[in-house]
Amino acid sequence: MQGTHSDLEPSVRIRDLKKDRVNFILENVDLAFANSLRRVMMADLPTVAIDLVEIQANTTVLPDEFIAHRLGMVPLVSSNCDEGMRYTRDCTCMAACQYCSIQLKLDVACHNNTTMDITSNHLEVTSYQMNDFDNTGEGEAGDEPSKRGEYFGHPVGKNDPDVAPVLICKIRKGQELKLRCIAKKGIAKEHAKWSPCSAVSFEYDPHNKLRHTTHWFETDERAEWPLSENASEEEKPRDDEVFDFNAVPRKFYFEVETDGSLGPQEVVMLGLAELQSKLAQIVLGLKKTEPEMLPGERVDEAPQAPADSWGASGGGGWGGNTSGNAAGWGSSSPNRGGGGNTWGSGGGWSSPAQQGAAGWQVS
Amino acid sequence: MPDAERTRRKPTFNTLAREEAFRNPPKNGSTYNILNEFVLPHLESFNALFDDSGLPSGDGDGRGLISLGLEDIGERVVFDGDGKVDNRGWGNRMRIWIESANIARPMVPDKDKHSTTRKVFPSEARERLTSYRAPRNAQGLRTCSYHEPEEFGGYFVINGNERLIRYLILPRRNHVISLIRPTFANRGPSYTQYAVQIRCVRPDQTAVTNSLHYLSNGSAMLRFSWRKQEYVIPIMLVLKALFGASDKEIFEGVMMQDYENTFLTDRVELLLRSFKMFTLSTGEQCLEYLGDKFRVVLGTPEDWTNHAVGAWLIQKLILVHLNSPRDKYRMLLFMLRKLYSVVSGSCCADNPDSPQHQEVLLPGSLYGMIIKERLEETLNQIRNTITIDVRNGVTVDFNDKKYFQKVLSKVNFDIGSKLSNFLATGNLVSPTGLDLQQAAGFTIVAEKLNWQRYISHFRCIHRGAFFAELKTTTVRKLLPEAWGFLCPVHTPDGSPCGLLNHLSRTCRIVTSPLTVAHIPAILAAHGMSQTTTQSIDGRKNYCVQLDGRVIGWARPAIATQLAMNLRIWKTEGINEIPLDLEIGLVPESKGGQYPGLFLFSTRARMMRPVKYLANGRDDQHNPTNFLSILANLTPFSDFNQSPRNIYQCQMGKQTMGTPSTALQHRTDNKLYRLQTGQTPVVRPALHNTYAMDSFPNGTNAIVAVISYTGYDMEDAMILNKSAHERGFAYGTVYKSQIIDLKDVPGASKSATPTLHFGLGRDIQRNGEKAHSCVEFIDADGLPFIGTKLTSGDPIAAYIDDTTGKTRFVKYKGDEMGLVDQVRLLGSDAGDSELQKLHITLRITRSPVIGDKFSSRHGQKGVCSQKWPAVDMPFSESGMQPDVIINPHAFPSRMTIGMLVESMAGKAGAMHGLAQDATPFKFTEEDTAIEYFGEQLLAAGYNYYGNEPMYSGITGQEFAADIYIGVVYYQRLRHMVLDKFQVRTTGPVDPVTRQPVKGRKRAGGIRFGEMERDALIAHGTSFLLQDRLMNCSDYSTAWVCRTCGSLISLGYEDISLGEVAMGASSSLRPSGPGGEYCRVCRAAAEAQDERERQALAAGKAAPPLPQADVKVAISSQHVLGRASKGGDLDVVAIPYVFRYLCAELASMGIAVSLAVT
């Protein structure tokens, strides 16, 4: 680890924040941490998406399974999904209940001579009625529903006239679509529909000073390779600059664009919290294996273990309880502890989601 | 120029116009008229059968080809006498002929009382799986009901299938070609390899081929065929018979003043001399002679004179495209001269494989020929029936109407069924063969696999089934003459390569004759010598022919001038020279083609747009015109190595695309549908022209060319799992199941059905004990729409009246299917009970590992892994590829077009442009790379389309920049789900007990000899035994230790401790299970018996009779003889070996095994 860098606190500078995107620079963390954040934001944040569709009437041109697939792709408002909903697999109900699912209904028929669009705006969130459960019963009572926001589970943009709805199907006179959907909580690792991000742009070293990559060119590198917008954030390399082969990337340019199910801010916050909880799991896992550990090893009590402790004990408790992502994050970083000891207290990074992270279970 | 060019490129997705056209389809006609244009030859050729309006005089009467055919059929004559002189001679003479033939529209049967529209539309026939019959009206074909906005006609609906008659290449009509074929010499003594041939076509489009063979004695023989039988007559006989030409006339006619040419004089002298032996000097005599010889085969009226029969022969079979004997005579002389010049080597043989000497067999013409022949056959049948009656002494009274009704009832008038049989099978059942080289394979199914495949059926043209078996590949060669007629790219690879071609995009086929009667006069006015002119010098004059008729002679300079004039006139519309007149000027050349000026105006010729350089007249000239429609759709095909474009033409037709926009009206056996088809960003200009956007064939995919994870090696490709989950290349297969209660076992043959769809009283539909079928089937016995079916589930139920029980029809597929549609099929009249169902099943086919994909550049690959999105490489902007392919796919294949498409697609996607990918738009000065590179640069990308990318796993930048862009990807119909084959145990062959073969039967894959060799070579003997024995036909068998026989096992029932006693009450030895060798026991007992008898007689035992052949068995085994057949052992052998022993035994060969 570079002495100069380790002294610096990780920092975030938000360059642009919009309703559906945030553009920020993450500094003074390592590549592995930055990439882990990217991966977690893309694949590990729970959201709500339609998972089961019960078709009651479909006389449209699209077959049932295709409409079901399209409905699954509709982003639903999932703020505070972590607390507002259980995973169905963790719920004691038989199939779905108010604690682990949201019910949406759609009932559209066209009676006019013009083509009608069935859109996500036609989806109505409905509370469960008794006859919606076919003797499946409810799960153990919990406070999840109270933690949901006003529009939790609603299609994104339904209550906003400025946002164009998602087109599901077009129908003509006499055609009808009636169905019941059950939206569940899930993560994008399972299916892409649960991903809150539409794209995460990620860049470091716009001038290629580190020479991680080579810019192939025919005649003139400068003419053929336009600099990215992020290049202005960094000093242009001088022509006579000496190559610093010890340098590592420390500055990462992110742009997180969401599909609206979670706000961009929430995505980043939750991403960090998720990363934290994953590491906590590792630590927890290491603790459990304490008796099997080599003598003389010291295990830290705190979830935010110092770098050397869990780096050295890698032989014992890796893998078992960690998900695939955690393994990826730890594997290639040359200095594992780089960001580890700082992000718990990192300035401005405290998030309400962190409190919930303790109760979160890793699948 | 480049800049001006660039502004002219106006790419557009045409979205708004298309949407508008889709919302408000034109009231009459179709949105894309070009679709009707390219099937025009199909349609017009049928229309010509009944409507030839606009025909110039002399070319028909405007009533169509059928009426011309009827005229040609003429009359049949019968007599009510038997011709014997002692009776009353021939008696009464009656002439029979067909006055006219008509066709009707398909109509609802009169029985039906409910229909409001009596007309039947093709779509109904298609959906009801019947034929669109009684029609035979090309007009009806064209005005198909428009379920499909882009529907076009030109095909037939036979039993619900769309079938069409494929174009076939034929020798050019009315044009003499010279041939050198060594096989000609085998035709008989003194025949040589030289011949000239002409395929003469009558006005009704039926043809007769005449050949003129050169004999080594200098004379020539004329060959023709009549009812599949070939006949040869001396040419002199015909020349004389035509109008009684004298020897001098013939001599002069052939020589044409070329008296110094001793080669020619010698031959003509021999020709004339050799005919002297016939002692026929006048034309009359020749006709008499011909008539006498051919009377037996021709079937002409019995009262005709030999002279009349001879004249009829000449009229009907020799140079039938010409009417007047003088024309025929001149043409024969021309043929003779051409023949002699080929023999002398002053001109070369013509190449029959060149499009110069070819034309097209039009579907309608073939159809008309068949109709004509069937009509002729009915006429002959009537005549024969009456003749037989007369011969058998049945009272034949020509004035008795009842008698005629009887005769007519015996004759089969159903031409329609013959025709629909022809269309359904493509087999030509014909007594004459119609002068065609093949009798089968005329029709094909127009498969609607996707739009590209469908439209190419209408443009394909076959060389002929005969050539497919030919060993030589010369017929398959792509000749420069084919430029603009046949597409050099669009031909399948493999066995039909080069034989099954496709017409170039702008190639037209002339379907109507032209007004040409005035041309001879115009040419004569411009310097052509008339045919009547005496003493024309054959050396200095070209023959001028119009449609195979000698219309005059012209000196080379004049002929060249005439050709140029005609071309200028036809392009500029002067002198009423039709534009489609074909002008072929063959200049004289040493050892080249036979010179002359040949004009053609008949139909069935292929025409291409050309630019006449002399006056610069341009007929929609375009560099891509020489490509077929499909070849034109390959983007940047000019950048690709040519075989790759051929592959794309194949793969485009195998793509899972959009077969139809009216799927609910289709009844095809199997349809593939891509659910999320897109319009390609990069597309040639013709994409819009041919309505390709109405039938999308693929998806624009983000493609990175990178070697990542290793799962992309050897043409495999990695799919982004998230892209897959979002529906990338999601497809559906629609399969049909037809349930006809008439075909079900137990169906009654009577008119009233005993099987009815429905659930009977024996099925409980409600309550606790409800039958399991109610999940799938409603009370009417039909499945619910949308029901999920797995193998073995009931798909329909019917009640059997005789037993009162309900029976089920099972779903037999092995995949989950969903009921998409249930179609109830009634009878034609709509008055019978429901007996037939057509069920469309929808089978979802989301892409899985092992499915095949391809770009539009012949780059196919198999999906090898669905890689999680987070682990996929990504670019700085966060883009992740949908598809990863390996860079090794490019160097050897050189599909630069794909690389250009990737760049163009990327730039197009960034700027929102539809990129024009028409080939030949870029030049060395204005390169594609430059054009798209600038666009990429403007969008902030690297000029050459590369991007730095990051590993999804570590987040580190790759050491190399990655080529990433947008490429249109097609999903091919070859899917693992249809192909995988796996077996542990399963059905075995009853004879050999080895696993059966075949995927359908759950069989195994053959582990053959070469595979065996491999295992032997590796020394893996355990594997070898496992594969060839244990996993195959492992069996155990008893083998006799004494005689080594495998097949002589016998069993004694000694289960309860019994012992078997022989006839001589001695103990019979057997093994512990009672097994014994029947052979050895019999031998031992015989020996015993002999010994006993010898003992009784007091003599020494006679020696054992010895077998002829002794098998070497080591003595230790022979010792076992003492056991008298009781010593058997169990050995493990392959079961086939036992079978082999039994088979050998049946041939008297014993197999002996040594057991140690």
TrEMBL record, chain A:
User: PANTHER family per the record?
Assistant: DNA-DIRECTED RNA POLYMERASE, DNA-DIRECTED RNA POLYMERASE II SUBUNIT RPB3
Biological process, per Gene Ontology? transcription by RNA polymerase II
Q: Per the record, which residues fall in region Disordered?
A: 294-363
The protein's matches in PROSITE patterns, at most eight in alphabetical order, are given as: RNA_POL_D_30KD
Q: Where in the cell is it found?
A: Nucleus
Question: Record keywords: Ion transport included?
Answer: no
The name under which this protein is listed is DNA-directed RNA polymerase II subunit RPB3
Compositionally biased intervals (Low complexity): 323-335, 350-363
State where composition is biased (Gly residues): 312-322, 336-349
What keywords were assigned to this record?
DNA-directed RNA polymerase, Nucleus, Transcription
Q: Mostly located where?
A: nucleus
Domain (DNA-directed RNA polymerase RpoA/D/Rpb3-type): residue spans on this chain: 21-285
Q: Which InterPro entries match?
A: DNA-dir_RNA_pol_30-40kDasu_CS, DNA-dir_RNA_pol_insert, DNA-dir_RNA_pol_RpoA/D/Rpb3, RBP11-like, RNAP_Rpo3/Rpb3/RPAC1, RNApol_insert_sf, Rpo3/RPB3_RNA_Pol_subunit
Q: Which organism is it from?
A: Mycena venus
UniProtKB/TrEMBL annotation, chain B:
Entry-linked Pfam families:
RNA_pol_Rpa2_4 (PF06883), RNA_pol_Rpb2_1 (PF04563), RNA_pol_Rpb2_2 (PF04561), RNA_pol_Rpb2_3 (PF04565), RNA_pol_Rpb2_6 (PF00562), RNA_pol_Rpb2_7 (PF04560)
Output the InterPro entries linked to this UniProt entry: DNA-dir_RNA_pol_su2, DNA-dir_RNAP_su2_dom, DNA-dir_RNAP_su2_hyb_sf, RNA_pol_bsu_CS, RNA_pol_bsu_protrusion, RNA_pol_Rpb2_2, RNA_pol_Rpb2_2_sf, RNA_pol_Rpb2_3
Query: Could you confirm whether the keyword Chaperone appears in this record?
Result: no
Query: In this protein, which residues make up the domain named RNA polymerase beta subunit protrusion?
Result: 148-396
Q: What is its EC number?
A: 2.7.7.6
Which residues belong to any copy of the DNA-directed RNA polymerase I subunit RPA2 domain? Answer: 551-608
* This protein's GO CC annotations: DNA-directed RNA polymerase complex; nuclear lumen
Q: Which SUPFAM superfamilies match?
A: beta and beta-prime subunits of DNA dependent RNA-polymerase
| Keyword line | DNA-directed RNA polymerase, Metal-binding, Nucleotidyltransferase, Nucleus, Transcription, Transferase, Zinc, Zinc-finger
Please cite one Gene Ontology biological process associated with this protein: transcription elongation by RNA polymerase I
The RNA polymerase Rpb2 domain sits at: 172-360, 445-509, 1003-1050
Q: According to the lineage, what is the superkingdom?
A: Eukaryota
Mind listing the GO molecular function terms for this protein? Answer: DNA binding; DNA-directed RNA polymerase activity; ribonucleoside binding; zinc ion binding
Regarding protein family, the annotation reads: Belongs to the RNA polymerase beta chain family.
- Please describe what this protein does: DNA-dependent RNA polymerase catalyzes the transcription of DNA into RNA using the four ribonucleoside triphosphates as substrates.
What is this protein called in UniProt? DNA-directed RNA polymerase subunit beta
